[in-house]
Design a protein that fits this description.
504 residues; binds flavin-adenine dinucleotide
């Protein structure tokens, strides 16, 4: 690295996840000389992207739009897909964010989602139909109905997405500097970005550039920033993904005048196995998720229900469900299923060991035995389960739709998919929460330029992915995180390359 100290790169990209590497590829394709800085080692590279399920939310008019994307890796005979239009995508974002998402950034995300996924497919990222997360088997038809909007995922999920992007970067002669942490943005007196200070294998040094793209993720792996922005309760939570997204470049950008934007007290946090490790592990990636709760009854350690398990499909509630679990004593709850609903469990439940019994009293006894140190209120739990069974209304259970099969007279009610716990075996999974990523970040405009408080671009500074704010509030629709990173990564890379060209 010592030789690079005095040279000026056209574009430096901070981070090596989906957002950063799509930006690097776009900048390189636009003719820029690009270097990527990765804080992690070669072995641990790739950020949250590598842990992800690889689902990209995008629009399509019909299955035919998806076929060219998956063509070398999958075939459409066994799947069906309802259309997912830009109006649907926008409505989903508006609905789950309570109408707060930035309208201009949302428009770009929605309008460029399909085109960006096709661009990635053309580059060589392998895609398949998402038959796993949120997909529903159609009884008797031997077909799977793909989840609306989340119909595609990268074949081999986040691990393969990461592998493919690094391979493409290598093929494009993009150099990646590992164990190189960006710590400060260097600007000229006129405010233009001229470089970045890094801490790397050779110590501290400044790398010069004409344009800088920040793709270094959120601050979810930084306990100090979690405590400061999300609140003290978040200090000790488990982190689902990488341990390297610690927010220092967010602070560095704020220090040069970037506008902070979005919900800094908000994050994506999901129900995960109560025994999951403190940070994500690559042997488990996203397999600790416990997202079949709409078909369960969820009770806390005090034996009480605390949420409408069936408010909506899990892909529209899972990102906020973690926060709800955090509010319960000990941040541990139980998801309880019976013979009717056990077949609906996602295969990811295989990474856990449930408590099983043939009667509800026996189940509660066994839970108490296994989790004695947590202090379960057995009598209340049993009564809650019996009251729940008594409150379930008749109706047709259908996991494919919001079936309105509900309870009557409970607080909270279960408003869809309420079936009685009355057929053994009964199974209970202990569930806690894991933080996935933070929602607050830097304000960018539709050109992926980072702007100041007067909404003027900071010359030479671009950003994409989880480091940006204003897209998601309270919640997010599954698969929109990766798409957001790639859509704005491509825009950032193209525009940073042009900016660099104009400077040279
Ligand atoms: C278990 C799990 C499953 C998920 N599944 C999905 C899914 O299926 N679909 C979806 O849309 N989203 C999913 N997400 C969210 C998704 O991972 C993210 O939205 C997306 O990968 C974020 O990409 P990114 O490039 O912004 O950040 P990251 O992929 O986290 O990349 C950040 C990069 O920056 C590096 N870095 C950080 N600080 C510095 C620094 N100072 N200097 C240099 N480098 C630095 C990190 O090492 C890393 O390489 C999932 C997340 C997790 C944890």
């Amino acid at each position: 690295m010592s030789t690079s100290e005095r040279e000026t790169f056209d574009v430096i990209v901070v981070g090596a996840g989906n957002a950063a590497l799509t930006a690097a590829l776009a900048a390189r394709a636009a003719g820029a000389r690009v270097v990527v800085l990765e804080k992690a080692s070669l072995k641990l590279r790739g950020g949250n992207t590598r842990f992800s399920g690889g689902v990209f939310r995008c629009t399509y008019r019909s299955l035919a739009d998806l076929v060219p994307i998956v063509q070398q890796h999958d075939s459409p005979e066994t799947v069906v897909a309802d259309p997912y239009t830009p109006v649907d995508y926008r409505k989903d974002i508006e609905r789950v964010t309570g109408g707060r998402a930035d309208p201009e950034l949302t428009t770009v995300l929605v309008d460029r989602a399909y085109d960006t996924v096709r661009w990635m497919a053309d580059l060589g990222v392998p895609w398949e139909f998402n038959r796993a997360v949120g997909a529903v088997t159609i009884p008797g038809a031997a077909k799977v109905k793909l989840p609306l909007g989340g119909a595609l995922r990268v074949k081999g999920e986040g691990v393969m997405l990461s592998t493919a992007l690094f391979r493409l970067a290598e093929e494009a002669s993009i150099k990646v500097l590992y164990e190189t942490q960006a710590v400060r943005i260097v600007t000229a007196t006129d405010g233009q970005v001229t470089g970045v200070e890094v801490r790397g294998p050779d110590g501290m040094q400044i790398l010069n550039c004409r344009a800088l793209i920040l793709g270094s993720g959120g601050f979810q792996a930084n306990p100090e920033m979690r405590t400061a922005y999300l609140g003290p309760a978040w200090s000790l939570v488990k982190v689902r993904g990488t341990r390297f997204d610690t927010g220092e470049m967010l602070r560095a950008a704020l220090a040069v005048g970037a506008q902070s934007y979005g919900e800094w007290a908000g994050c994506h946090a999901t129900p995960i196995d109560a025994d999951a490790p403190t940070y994500g592990e690559l042997r488990l990636t996203d397999k600790t998720n416990r997202l079949s709760y709409p078909f369960s009854v969820m009770v806390n350690l005090d034996g009480e229900r605390f949420v409408d398990e069936g408010e909506d499909f899990n892909l529209y509630t899972y990102a906020k469900m973690g926060r709800q679990i955090l509010q319960e004593r000990g941040a541990v709850v139980f998801q309880i299923f019976d013979r009717k609903t056990i077949p609906l469990l996602e295969t990811r439940y295989n990474t856990g060991t449930p408590v099983t019994a043939d009667t509800l009293p026996e189940l509660v006894d066994r839970l108490e035995e296994r989790y004695r140190s947590l202090g379960i209120r057995k009598a209340t739990m049993l009564k809650t389960l019996e009251d729940y069974n008594a409150a379930v209304q008749d109706g047709v259970f259908n996991p494919d739709i919001l079936d309105k099969k509900r309870t009557q007279g409970l607080r909270p009610e279960k408003t869809n998919w309420a079936t009685r716990l009355d057929e053994p075996p009964f199974q209970a999974y202990a569930v806690s929460l894991g933080i996935t990523f933070t929602f607050g970040g830097l304000r960018i405009n539709t050109n992926a330029e980072v702007v100041d408080y007067l909404e003027r671009p900071i010359p030479g500074l671009f950003a994409t992915g989880e480091i940006t704010g204003g897209f998601f509030y309270l919640n997010y629709p599954a698969g929109a995180g990766l798409t957001r990173g790639a859509v704005f990564g491509r825009i950032a890379g193209t525009n940073a390359a042009q900016f660099a060209r104009e400077q040279s």
